[in-house]
């Protein structure tokens, strides 16, 4: 009787699926919930999709703003439009131009990872604790010039009125 009960449960119980490798071929295992991609590849895929969507929205805004500007300034002049290929190239350049500035997490001199403890110099470099001083990393920033400018700005020249002699 006990074995008959097990046979009934075997047909209705959840059968675990065989692990499948990532569809990108990175060597990790994927799941059907992530389109047979591993977690890292799925995250990269989502980021890529978000970037494409943002670029599409920016491109549409650019196209609509150009159309409005063209309609307002050049009513029907064929020279102002150019070829369609030139317009697409200009739009792609405009979309790709505003690249995000990424702060480096490595020392400019020794390439050591600095993490959150990195020092940012006035010359724009990110440095470790050993190279944070200007004389240690051959800093190109003009500290004396900045000091002179600060003093000149803080202490304006005061000239008195000339005294008229009798």
UniProtKB/TrEMBL annotation:
Coiled coil: none annotated. May be involved in environmental stress response. It holds the Pfam family zf-AN1. Residues 101-147 form the AN1-type domain. GO terms for molecular function: DNA binding; zinc ion binding. InterPro entries: AN1-like_Znf, AN1_A20_ZnFinger, Znf_A20, Znf_AN1. The keyword Nucleus does not apply. The gene is LOC113688633. Keywords: Metal-binding, Zinc, Zinc-finger. This is Zinc finger A20 and AN1 domain-containing stress-associated protein 7-like. Residues 16-50 form the A20-type domain.
